Amino acid sequence: MDQKGEPIEEILERYKGQNAFVVIEVLSVDPKTQKPLTGRVIAVTPDETEAGLAARKAKHFLIRWVGEVAEVIIV
Amino acid sequence: MPTIPFDASRRVILVGAIAFAIDGRPAELTVLVDTGAVRTGFRRSTLIGLGIDVDASEQTIRLNTASESLTVPVVNLPLLRVFEVDFRDLPVLCLPLPPTVPADGVLGFDVLSRFRLFVNYKRGLLVAEPFNGFLSGTKFLWQLAKAM
To answer: Which of residues 18-37 of B touch A (CB under 8 A)?
Structure first.
């Protein structure tokens, strides 16, 4: 993998359905919108604490759940 | 002032936000705009990732939701940027959101009450303008007209 990493959408697609948190270090952002474009995977885990601890290693991160998504939310 | 598109087909308002650790590391977040929530809160993974020790928090709060009552830690978030406005040292809740909830956290009244808000559910547009005097009100009306 090069310095710029992979498109984040592709990473999430690859892990889709695994019922885990994917921790991604963001390596580049869109210069106009500042939205994350590319990154690299730091960890894949179903455990929230593990995901958070892994994210501490990244300079810029995002954590996404790749699995079943609730349709209805009651908070 | 931002006019933020959202996917109305998901039947919730999910928007982007950025939280910063005390050392300045940013985290890209997806947050739920929840006008029914009193307080803003985030997932445990997000807060831990930002270097916050949620288990060491000395402050807790009894949280009554529509479905349950529970005690959750309150921690200080160094910086939250939402709708282009910075909130520093914001007390936030550590929320036990189920993994299947497609959000890293919830924006509640404490944050949302700092804005004029307009939602066009049909078009999937949210207009958010901070209360910054008369001019901001005029800008809000202009953005609102465009979002109608």
So the answer is: 25-29, 32, 34, 36-37
Question: Do B27 and B21 contact (CB within 8 A), yes or no?
Answer: yes
Q: CB A52 to CB B49 under 8 A?
A: yes
Average pLDDT on B107-120 reads: 95
Range of the domain at B91: 10-114
| CB spacing of B99 vs A60 below 8 angstroms | no
Cα B74 from chain centre: 15
For A62, nearest residue in chain B (alpha carbons):
B28
- Token pair, residue B52, equals 């916050």
CA torsion sign for A47, A63, A68, A70 is positive
Domain membership of residue A26 (yes or no) is: yes
Residue among A52, A55, A50 at smallest CA distance from B45: A52
In a domain, residue A37? The reply is yes
Q: Render pLDDT for B32-84 as a digit per residue (tens, 0 to 9).
A: 999 989 999 999 999 999 999 999 999 999 988 777 889 999 999 999 999 99
For A7-64, write each residue's pLDDT tens digit.
999 999 999 999 999 999 999 999 988 899 999 999 999 999 999 999 999 999 999 9
Show the domain range for A58.
6-66
- pTM equals 0.90
